[in-house]
Amino acid sequence: MPLSVDPASAAALLKIGLLLVTGISVHLSLSPPNPPAPSKHIIDRRTLFERCVRWVTFCSKMMVWVETLLDALAVAVSAFPNLPLAPRLARLLCPSASPALTVPSSLLIAGTLAVLCGSVIRLVCFRTLGPLFTFELTISPAHSLVTHGPYAIVRHPSYTGIYLTLLGSSAVALAPGSWLHECWLQLGSCGVSAAWNVAYALRSTNRRLATEDRELRRAFGPAWEAYAERVPWRLIPGVW
């Protein structure tokens, strides 16, 4: 006999699944595929972001894990009050629980899909560059100009993945019905914080894009010029 699940429980389980997909995807996207590069090969360590890039990505990853797991737990104890300690945990996690907490909003679904796509793009970039992919900006003697795979579509696909990861995870955290939105923070303060974080990430990434292009042009000369002419788009094909 097939197991039946009522629509409310199914919605709650779907939201928990989406939150877990978000956490796993962000973890994969922000986990370095290789050890830190030798300091003698690192370029442009002038900014705070460049000096602390691994620490920044680690903290971002942990913050997303904390938020998604607490959100998933709040959904579980609100939707399934018969679970052990559920009423007590529900009061602790969300004193003013809203019915929207257990329903995945369209923004949360879109954010999860964005994070998932960003993670896939990042993993493909990790695999394509192999040992050349480091979180630090580096040019080593063994460096080669990679122009195949996703790098045949845009010049900086890993940053496309980062944008999708950061914007998607912010959407998941701040979506209507999210744990942060419904239980603890005012939408206004969330919006200001998210806007500041996204603006800082955009600014730091734009600086890295310019620095990478400059260093690759210096290292590979005509080969890079031909590549840049063949692949003029930095992040989004046909747009920029």
Number of helices: 9
Helix content: 55-70%
First-to-last CA distance:
54 Å
Query: Could you say what the CATH architecture is?
Result: Up-down Bundle
CATH topology annotation: Four Helix Bundle (Hemerythrin (Met), subunit A)
Brief overview, please?
By secondary structure, the protein is mostly helical.
What features would you highlight for this structure?
240 residues; mainly alpha; elongated
Description:
By secondary structure, the protein is an all-alpha fold. It has a single domain, classed as Four Helix Bundle (Hemerythrin (Met), subunit A) (Up-down Bundle). It is built from 9 helices and no strands. α1 packs antiparallel against α3, α5 packs antiparallel against α6 and α6 packs antiparallel against α8. The longest helix is centred in the last third of the chain and has 34 residues. It is elongated, with a radius of gyration of 21 Å. Keywords: Endoplasmic reticulum, Membrane, Methyltransferase, S-adenosyl-L-methionine, Signal, Transferase, Transmembrane, Transmembrane helix. Its EC number is 2.1.1.100.
Helix and strand topology:
Blueprint: H1 7-29, H2 48-51, H3 53-79, H4 86-93, H5 106-129, H6 157-174, H7 179-184, H8 187-220, H9 222-230
Helix pairs in contact: 1-3, 1-5, 1-6, 3-4, 5-6, 6-8, 8-9
